[in-house]
What does this fold into?
Amino acid sequence: MTEQLIQLGLAGLGTVGSGVYEALRDNNTLLEARAKIPFAVKKIAVRDLDKKRDVIIPNELLTDNWEELVNDPAIDIIVELIGGTTQAYQLVTAALKAGKPVVTGNKALLAEHGAEIFKLSAQSGIPIYFEASAGGGIPIIHSLQSSLICNHITSIVGIINGTSNYILSSMGEDDTDYDVALTQARELGFAEDDPTLDVNGWDAAHKALILAMLAFGKTISPDKIFVNGIENISKKDFAFAKQLGYTIKLLVIIRKHENGKDAIELRVQPCFVPNSHILASVNGVFNAIAVTGDIVGETLFYGRGAGKMPTASAVIADIITAMRESRHPEFHTGFHPYATKCEIMSIEDTTSPYYVRFQVADQPGVIAELARILALYGIGISATSSSKNSQDETGMVWNDLVFMLHECPWGQLQMALNDIAELAYIRPNPSVIRIENLLPNP
Ligand code: HSE
It folds into this structure.
């Protein structure tokens, strides 16, 4: 029996959209041989029909109206790659309502509107696939949904923003300036249209929300995640980290605590990672995600977390899954929330050791005052380090003073820092970086 041709409507021809078009074209024979389903791109919606593009597309495929994709009865599957949360939201909800399965890589859309979109998908029985929404080319979504299906997930910890990892690696390894590294990441096509999301931690947070939803079976609203970015990490912090045997990584921490409430720690923060840990060697655009399940134990997923072709690879995997599952729509692997509760811990209660770098005036008693306040809050110091800065315009000498602090709740440290902020001869806003309690290398 000859399979019926499946036709795709592609919305968006930016970096990832053109990668998808090129890979579908170049690997068409391989894909049809493996999937055993003939397919074709029927229409592509773009913002500007006249824009000069690197990829050559027959004119008759292009439209500047995405509604044509949804309204065309010959189009079976919609691939949303326009990004943002306004038009993309309209397109995805219209497609699901029209009975067309959707493939998207839009993490912001799913993090912000996931509850509504997944409900619509469940009610209509029309799946939405989103492998490209987290981890770029790493098959983490499919792994959580299918390969690890029998596991209660106990933790997901890792690096899931390629741009910030590229910047931190360049600062740590090559001593590159923050702004130069960010410009390079943008030129390489890793960064979001709005790169502030990459550096302020929110791109990683959107992905973390999606991973947590899959792990715990419930949609989670973005106000539940605590997020710090990398904007304030300086070369000085890298120098101290190196001296102390660490590097700095922007980590996503999703960790279930068996504390009677089964509460989940959910945060994105720059962290000290010991050089001996495998995550310390994940550099450049690479992402790594360590998933621990009660049956499987520890697993580690590694690959390119951003960029045109790795992301296209993830999108195409979903297109093929959507085609295959369209034969048996009742068994589709789109996300069906199933849990009734999912309690997220307050950041105040999350604990770890810390690195804190103060800038203190070279005056007698300053260190003793700092130590006294920390002791008042029961916070112990495990090590100290310092370096001398140059004089300021008044002739006063300021030193960088680093305290490595024993494990304590985040809230307790913040209270101590509030008191310390009142002291004279200490500059405001010390650099506070968690020293992450990581599982041993798998
Ligand atoms: N801007 C994202 C990153 C792209 O740098 O990881 C992939 O989601």
